[in-house]
Design a protein that fits this description.
Number of domains: 1
Helix content: over 70%
Number of helices: 6
Radius of gyration: 15 Å
Structural class: mainly alpha
Order of helices and strands: HHHHHH
Length: about 120
Amino acid sequence: MRPRSLITVILGIVLSVLGLVSLVIYHSATGAIPLLIGGSLIYLGWCGGRTALLVFGHTTIVIGCAMITWGIYLLPVSKPTLAHILARPLFWGFISLFGGICANYHGFCSCIRGQK
């Protein structure tokens, strides 16, 4: 069985690995969100459709906004190191927000709707 979108599956695997690294190495609970989003991308890459992509995009935007707000509250206690940048919710919030916007635009693309 071939995936519908190999790029989406690969992106989901990379995001899941980064979330798992954040959970295990940095002991940060924010790693669960990229792990869940990565799992959703793997599902969408294998058997997702237009409706699933639009629901995923809207959900990711809401999660991204909540993570950005949480990350702004954590800025006074953050250190300017690579580990703190990658393990804090502000970074993952921006990634989630822009990924959700991209998913919504792609959900209305002619390649998804089947038009030529």
